[in-house]
Amino acid sequence: MSIKAEEISALIKQQLQGYNNELDVEETGIVTYVGDGIARAHGLENALSSELLEFSNGVYGMAQNLETNDVGIMILGEDTGIREGDTVKRTGRIMEVPVGDDLVGRVVNSLGQPIDGKGSITAADHKPIEHKAPGIMARQSVFEPLQTGIKAIDSLVPIGRGQRELIIGDRKTGKTSIAIDTILNQKDQNMICIYVAIGQKESTVRSSVRTLEQYGAMDYTIVVNAGPSEPASLLYIAPYAGATMGEYFMNNGQHVLIVYDDLSKQADAYRELSLILRRPPGREAYPGDIFYTHSRLLERAAKLNDKLGGGSMTALPIVETRAGDVSAYIPTNVISITDGQIFLNADMFYSGVRPAVDAGTSVSRVGGDAQIKAMKKVAGTLRLDLASYKELESFAQFGSDLDAATQAKLNRGARTVEVLKQPLHSPLPVEKQVLILYCLTRKYLDKIQLDDIEQYQNDIFDFFDTHHADLLEEIAKTGKLPDTDKLDTAIDEFAKTFQPNKKDEEEAALGD
After folding, report:
1. For residues 129 and 242, what is the distance between their CA atoms, to the nearest angstrom?
2. Is the dihedral of CA 383, 388, 389, 390 positive or negative?
3. Going edge to edge, which strands form the sheet with 191-198?
4. Exposed e or buried b for every residue in 319-355, given b needs 16+ CB within 10 A?
């Protein structure tokens, strides 16, 4: 069989046309140490800080320490399949997570992977978990209220869209409950909520997700979970992943509420990683950049200016204290970064005052800018009433020896405390909060027994829903108090029909 010279020539030309002279070069290193969630690798001379690195078994890591001889790597997953001598290569990318509308209603891990068994997620895009916070000119002042539905917060420590308000208190004082109730109250408010659970027990997170599903809140909520059994690296990056997911919506002109529950556990995870990476320890063995860790996260919450779409991201970081000590390292750091704090008092909580918001220690630095005018009017004296009550409370046992003015202050304070109590998962619309606080400040409750105040509150809400819905609607739409004569007439009308429940008194009489 003869081969023609023309055929050979054509074949060579065809091969030359398809020839690619670009070399596929990958920078790889050798793992020299692995253990406790970190690895060290030699040979990655050009690795960048926070660059994503891939181990030979497919697990990813994030470059942390860029040292002379080797690179310290935070392993983003299980380290059991990695051995000394394995190869690790640069990817040229930094840590990213999926973002987009498809994440809403899902439970994901710190890498944005679904863990709720509802199938895969089609991401609109992938964004780096580290992103520079909006600058001064990109922001505008916080002025729109974010209603939590909790009377003690909306009246005393109002939160605005774009604010960072710390929730702080001892363990088991209702911090998570306040955050969950705030998410429940965002229904029909054009708000995307993100709940980041850091180091929370799996059963606790499951209970929170069940509550959100029960009240229809998962329709607008993303849950990011980094459980206590996961590597410390995933606990550390969880809040950054949540912030990135929130920024996608904020940059598209939407409003976002993000809860970090809690940053104490994230700080502990970062301390663990830093000590294993042999970074110099500082106060309480935390690394020197622990403040920057939280500040660069919380500064990402903002109210953007109108040119950038006017979107907002409101952050509710949670920090746990020990024995009410707010002067510990992490609490003082986060207090100095945020725009105020809601302090939950353990003594109040255990005495039955729930939510246990301590009005004396709690503050919102945005203040009245984040309150509707009606709430400003009715809540103006609440803080003073509570302060006077706390001051005089210790003398309450000598009630018979007190003058009329002091007795009146005690009575007003006791009723204020009673009105601010609220059952779990029962957020109130702002117009109903204004109504009951109006009754309190206009002395309509002065003649009501303390035990009957809860019933009075429930009955007046039902009465207004049925007979004076227009007044409630006016508060909700305009943000202002309706004509006070109309309001007083309606409350007087209700007072004539109000019948305290005598069942308990009858049972007591029968017992005697």
Report:
1. 8
2. positive
3. 107-108, 221-226, 191-198, 255-261, 312-321, 166-170, 340-344, 363-364
4. bbbeebebebebbebbbebbbbbbbbbbebbeeebbb
Residue 455's H or E segment, with its range, is helix 453-467
Smallest CA-to-CA distance from 257 within 161, 337, 170, 351 is with 161
Known catalytic residues are: 365
Domain count, the chain: 3
Q: Taking all residues of the chain, what is their mean pLDDT, rounded to a whole number?
A: 91
pTM for this model (two decimals): 0.91
Q: Residue 208 domain-assigned?
A: yes
* Whether residue 331 sits in one domain with residue 267: yes
Interatomic CA distance for residues 132 and 138, integer angstroms:
12
HEC profile of 384-441: HHHHHHHHHHCCHHHHHHCCHHHHHHHHHHHHHHHHHCCCCCCCCCHHHHHHHHHHHH
**Inter-residue contact 113 to 228 (CB < 8 Å):** no
- The share of the chain scoring above pLDDT 90, in percent, equals 79
Quote the DSSP letter at residue 307.
G
* pLDDT above 80: residue 192: yes
Q: Does any domain span residue 118?
A: yes
112, 243 Cβ separation under 8 angstroms: no
> Helices (DSSP H) in 131-262: which residue ranges?
151-156, 175-184, 202-214, 232-250
Contact between residue 437 and residue 419 where contact means Cβ atoms under 8 Å apart: yes
Q: How confident is the model at residue 220 (pLDDT cuts 50, 70, 90)?
A: very high
Taking the C-alpha atoms of residue 335 and residue 314, their distance in angstroms, rounded to an integer, is: 16
Same-domain pairing of 67 and 137: no
Percent of the chain at pLDDT > 70 equals 94
Task: Give the model's confidence band at 276: pLDDT under 50 very low, under 70 low, under 90 confident, else very high.
Answer: very high
In this structure, what token pair is assigned to residue 96? Answer: 């990213």
Distance CA(208)–CA(210), nearest Å, equals: 5
Element (H, E) at 54: strand 51-55
| Listed residue (374, 372, 379, 360) closest to 440, CA to CA | 379
Do residues 481 and 374 touch, judged by C-beta distance below 8 A? Answer: yes
Q: Do 221 and 183 contact (CB within 8 A), yes or no? A: yes
Query: By the 8 A CB rule, do 313 and 247 touch?
Result: yes
Residue 95 has pLDDT above 60, yes or no: yes
Tally of CA atoms within 13 A in the half-sphere of 478 that contains its CB: 11
| Structure tokens that stand for 158 in this block | 């109002």
What one-letter code names the amino acid at 91?
T
For residue 194, the cross-strand partners are 222, 258
**What CATH number should be reported for the domain holding residue 55?**
2.40.30.20
